[in-house]
Structure formats: C-alpha cells, structure tokens
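User: We ran a pulldown and think these components assemble together. Before we commit to crystallization trials, I'd like a predicted model of the whole complex to look at. Sequences follow.
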Amino acid sequence: MTETEAVLAAVRERVDPTAAERERLSTAAERLVERAEDALAARDLDADVVRVGSTARGTWVRGDRDIDVFVRFSPSLDREELETSGLAVGNAVLPDGHEEYAEHPYVKGEFEGYDVDLVPCYAVESARDIQSAVDRTPFHTEYLEVRLDDELAADVRLCKQFLKGIGAYGSDLKTEGFSGYLTELLVLEYGGFEALLEAAATEWHPPVTLDPEDHADASFDDPLVVIDPTDPERNVAAVVSAANVARLQHYARRFREDPRESYFFSSPREPLTAEAVREAFADRGTRALAVRFGDDSLLDLVEDQRYPQLRRSLDGLVRGLEKRGFEVLRAATWADETAVLFCELSVAELPGIERHRGPPVHVGEHAEGFYRKYADDADVYGPYIDGERYVVERERSVTSAAAFAEEELESVALGHAVERLVETGEYAVLADADVCVLAEEFGEELAAYFEPRP
Amino acid sequence: MTETEAVLAAVRERVDPTAAERERLSTAAERLVERAEDALAARDLDADVVRVGSTARGTWVRGDRDIDVFVRFSPSLDREELETSGLAVGNAVLPDGHEEYAEHPYVKGEFEGYDVDLVPCYAVESARDIQSAVDRTPFHTEYLEVRLDDELAADVRLCKQFLKGIGAYGSDLKTEGFSGYLTELLVLEYGGFEALLEAAATEWHPPVTLDPEDHADASFDDPLVVIDPTDPERNVAAVVSAANVARLQHYARRFREDPRESYFFSSPREPLTAEAVREAFADRGTRALAVRFGDDSLLDLVEDQRYPQLRRSLDGLVRGLEKRGFEVLRAATWADETAVLFCELSVAELPGIERHRGPPVHVGEHAEGFYRKYADDADVYGPYIDGERYVVERERSVTSAAAFAEEELESVALGHAVERLVETGEYAVLADADVCVLAEEFGEELAAYFEPRP
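Assistant: Here's a predicted model for the assembly, 908 residues in total across the polymer chains.
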C-alpha cells in the first residue's frame, strides 16, 4: 500500500458511514416517503415523492443526519395551491416541524433523529423548464444516481472531507466554496478524487471550464465553470471564488507531494487575547481601524445576505481609504454578535494638505476655471505649473483614517443594510489599541488573520 | 490709448535702448570688426568677419552689453587650423581676453565696456552643411536682419522682457526656456508681441508646431516645435519645457485680461529664514528630506551639465521613494555652493512589513517557487491566498524615507556625477528640522517653493 493509499484508507475509516448507519438511515427514509405518500393519498393529491440530496445518492459523510424529501406536484398547479398542499403534507409528515421559507415555504423538522426538509416542487419535464429553483434538485439526483457507483461515491466523500479540511466546502456566500453537487460532478468528471487533485494541481488554469454533457448554452465569467448536466444554461460552480479555486490547487499540490491525513481535518485556531492582538500590531508596526455594527437589522440577515453586504462595504471602505492616501495593508470582515469591517493600515495619518492636479493649462475654459477657482483662495498653495498642468496644494478633508471612517464613510459604496446604519450613524469606529476589544468576540478570526494560511 | 498700449509704451520706455546707447554700441562694434579684419590681414588669413546675436539684429534689451563677432573661415580648413587661426585673431583683437571652450575654443574679453565673444567658424554654404554648431549662427542673423523691421524688433524686446518677467527666458538647461532667436522667430511668425500672446492664450494646444519656411524635414517630440528657417532638421524650441510653454500660455491670458507692467519685471523673493522654513513645514504638516552634495566634481560642472544631472537624480530619488511607499508631495533641486535634492513628503515612515504579491497559484513552477521560498520563512506572514494569487507580508528593507536616502540611494537612476558621489557616500541626508539649515544658502528658492506661482 502506498503512502497515499494508506492516508486515504485512514480518512475513509473516518468518513464512510457505517453499515448500521446506512441501514438506519435507509429505514427511516423509507418510512418518511411512505408517510408522505399516505398524506397525499389522504388528501387526494396527485403528486409523487422523491428523495434527493447526499443521503439519497449515498455520498454523505459519516455523521451527516440530513434527509431531503421532495413532493412533486403537477406544473399546472398554481403557486398558491402548491404552497398550501405542500405545507399540508409537510405538517402531516412532520407534526413537530416548523415552516421555513426559501423561494417558497417548506417544512423542516426532526424524524427519528434525522433533520428532515420536506419540500414541495413542480414535476417539470426537464431542468430547463423549472418554475422554481428547487424544481431542479430532483434532476440532479436522477443524473447522479445512475452514474455514481459505490467507488465514486466513496471518492466523493473523500473529496468533500478534503474541501472541508482546507476550508473550501460549502456554497453559502460566506464560504463561496464547493457545493456537494459540484463536488460530485467534479469527482464524476475526473473519475475519482485523486484524478481530480491531479488535474487541479497540474492542469487547471482558470478560467477552467467543464461541460460533462457537452451542451453549454451560455457563457460565464467565473474562475471555475461546470455546466450543469441537467441545465445547459447554468454554471454549478458560479459561487466558487477565485481564492477557493486557488486553494484547491494549492492543497492538491501539497497533498500529492506529502500525503497527510491532517489536510482533511483542520484543527481549530486558538483564539487570540486582546493582549496578543496588541502585540501583533506592535510586531508588525501597522495601524488598526475597525468599523463595528451592533444593529439587528444587519445581524438578523441570513449569512447569504449578510456576507455579500459586508464584503461590498469592506471593499468600499478600503477603496475610500486608499483613494485618500491611507494605504491598507490587509482587510477582513467578520460577523457574529456584532459585525466588523477590519482594516490594517500602513498609513493612518497624512498631512493637512494634499496635492490636487488640475487640467493642462492649454485646455481653455476648463483650465481657466481651475485657475480662477483657486487663484484667490488663501487656504491653498498655488496654483502653480507642473509640466503642462496647473497644480494646487489644498486642505485635506480628513487627516486620519479614523476621521475618514467617522466623517466620510457615507461617501463610499456600501451594502444596503450597512448604508442605512452608516447614514444614521449607528456604528462605532475603533482605532489602534481600541481594536483589541474585538478579541472578545473574534479571537479565532484574529488568530487566523495574524497567522494566515493558504 | 488703450490700457494695453499704455502698459506696453511704459515697458518700451524701460527696455528700448537709448539713442546714445545704440550709437555707442554701433561704434564699438564697427571698431571691433575692423580690428578683426586687420588681424586677419596681418596674418594673411582668408576669412570674413560678421556680427551676430541680438546687438547685431537690433533686438537687444536696454543694458545688454554683449557683442558677438564671428570670423568665418573656409570649410576646407581642418579643425586644428581653424582653432589656431581663430584663437590668434581672437587674442589679437582682445589682448586681455581669455580662451573658453564650447564646441571648439573661442576668445572672450572686454572691449570698450562691452562683453565680447570672438568666435571662429566655417563659412558653409547653408545651415544644413554646418561642421560645428556655431556655423549656424550667422545664418540666423542673415535670415532675421532682412525680416525684422524696427517695429518688430521693438516687439521682440517686449517679448523678451515678458519672458524674463515670467521666468521663461533663456535656453540654458536650468531654465529650459525661450532663447533670443526663438523669441525673434515667434514674434516674426505671428507679426508682433500681442498677436503672439493671443495665439498662446487662445490657440495653442501642445504640441504646437510652427514652420516659417514650410520646409520641415524631421519630426519632433517636443511641446513646442519651431522649425529653424535655416535648417529644416532642427527644432529651435527643443529645449523649451512643457512647463514654460504652459507658463507663457498662462501669463498671456493674465496679461490680456489685466495688462500690468509688473508681468514684465518680476520682483525678487524675500529669502526665507530657517525659522520660517520650520513654520512652513509645521503649517503644511508634511515631512522634509534633503540630500546635499558639497563636492566640487559636481559643483564645478557648468549649469548646462549640472542641472540635467540634478534633475535626473531628483527624479530617481522621487521614484525610488514612491516605489517604496513614501509619498512625495513635491520636490525640487537647487545648486549654488552646494547642490540639493529636496523632497517634501506626505509619508515619511512606514511599518516594518510590506505586502508582497506573488504569482497566481495556477502558474505552475513560478507559483510553486514562490510558495517554497516563503513557506518556511519565520520572518514572513503567509504565504496566504488573496484572489487567485499567493501573497506574503515580509520585512521592509527601510522603514523611513531618510533611511532610504542613506542606505538605498545607489539603487535609483542618478546623473553620472551624482552617482559617483553616492557610491562613495559623499553626501549628507537632512531630515525634518535639519533641512532648515538650507535657508542659509537657498532662502530665496525656499521662499519660491513655499509660495509657488505659475
């Protein structure tokens, strides 16, 4: 047995479901489907019941306890009927469950120890005809069921665990990583986990485009493009960030060079204390700036709404700072009980004046306008001529990064929920030593920040 | 009389040579030519004697005391014979003079109170056949003599004085301004001083190209191109900087808007004291850095060699500072008894670390090389992944602008004479309060620096 084989065998020992686990899950799932069918019959509803997701396809990782059951109604039903009937069946099957809402409502509940989603959808002809995003899911299961044999399913489990270990698993907008379905398609396309790693390590030059059914009917501007075999107009990997593609490439190379079980199981970071944060800034000689939000209007957003808003706001803050000459070394955003835009600065203070370049002297009215505007302004130096242009040195509106965050944050592009809070001043600016208090809430994030890994 | 006419009449009163002055100069110049002709005859040399320059063309400004006399030898003479004979005649005419060297030697001396250059050259057929740069000069005088009437000559004087007043007169490489010959051609081309101002104020969009004889036979990459009427391959305005073209445009507009005599006669600056320099920096909130050279190898250079070297060195210093993150607000170079590269900084100090962006992770060997180089380096943070790339944060080689000037000045592009001094460490770095000592030597330059005008 090679070293790689030994490591993969050891990982399999940890991620493959046990026979007893499979048996239990299979029995529970069958009973669930029966109950759903009975509920439909009792209400004289015309629909079929299908299992979807990783536990239906045999690709779940040991310990996952999710069973997804879809109830497919006729596409002729209107949306309201679908919702009413769907919830009726869901509540009958999962009497202790509760209703949730994605594109339309469904019932979530516990059944014999499993976390169950019972989701109504339309039984459309093909994934191209979907009326709601969830209509697509049964097609994925159909497609994979017949193609993933036990060996490939085992490799899918290895691959999911590897992506979890390197922090690239999950299509939520906080992670921007690989979804379960995408992982399955990649393993299927390359014929196994190791073949996928080989391709990622040695062949991928983003944009990487894969089209298993060779039927692409749209073009995409993403670093990884995997055309959905059930829908030629959809990129299954649309959410995967360039960083997560690079991360998979990086760790694929590391694993192939030195196979170790530890790549599959990341160890949590030791949270940093406030004192350690202070020391880290002292060692680096940099300046700190944080903008902190405590308002529920932002924090109650689901992660898939909150993180894009925070990232957009962080990007706006960084651009705003750099445009005004405050050089940002690195930035990050975190959210838990509060949300934080965190910037580490190389330059946090600037002089009272800044250079302001005017038009070339020869551009007639524009140049004259510039000259006249400043000629009698006692607060500016100049206008003088530099090369062919007028230049003045005028007062800077803010001379510190903290003052910018306090006074001019409204001027940058922010996420909507963030923008509202900034407009009403519902945020706090922390500078330098003050940011250490963030260690109470974001100790692990700060640990990862100051000891960054690929 | 319009306001403009009144102002121009008042300026003429100050710049037109008096009748007595003309008479005296004319007599002295005739005697000089005679003496030169006698000296040629006595040596049995075949050459003719011509007067050139502004006093020959009637375009000199009152008080100028330069008489230029050229002795034109046959082009068949070899260079050595030309020099020997030229100097012999020169020394005979100006027995108290001394030899100077431009492209070849000539004699400079005083004659009846005038400063005289007695220059040997070749009597070539046309300015295109010149064997030495000075051969061209008599053609300029020939060309202008017949075209500049008294009225135009008077306008040339106005124009020269205007250019002096705004600091744009002189083709030396410190000024990079308008030569006398160029001024004459411009006034001739536009038909007068006011017409030239009108064109500069309202029509010029550099590059501006004028070709009085419509015979250009080369192309030029200069903001102002005036093809020499005596040489289709030469731009008479080659030395004029973009700033001086812009300066003429700016002051042309000012004068047309509000004609004032003061534009023609700039008042000298009141030198700044060391204390005033300190206050200026305090007001502006900026940081100072100066590199000062006291070595004769640089200071003994003629200005036309020294200033290009200093400017090139200043440019190198500024680029070097900015490349390393030290933002330069403005910079200048001055020379007198010492030479100085002077920088005013917005950012003079930076943290101990800097961001260093590596290659995209997918570029195979290059990416692997970067990763390996830094993976086990305890002094860097990272490598981590940002977007598709590796990034590290590594130690900065210098954390202050002064340290850069002290330790890394060799790394930037410098003028040759400056480079030698930097290599051997023969320079001093002054930072912040220390630069105030420059006021002793460069008080006027510092006054102009802190109260800049177009």
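Residues 17-133 of chain B form a domain with the Beta Polymerase; domain 2 fold (CATH 3.30.460.10). That may be worth checking against your pulldown data before setting up trials.

User: Thanks, that helps.
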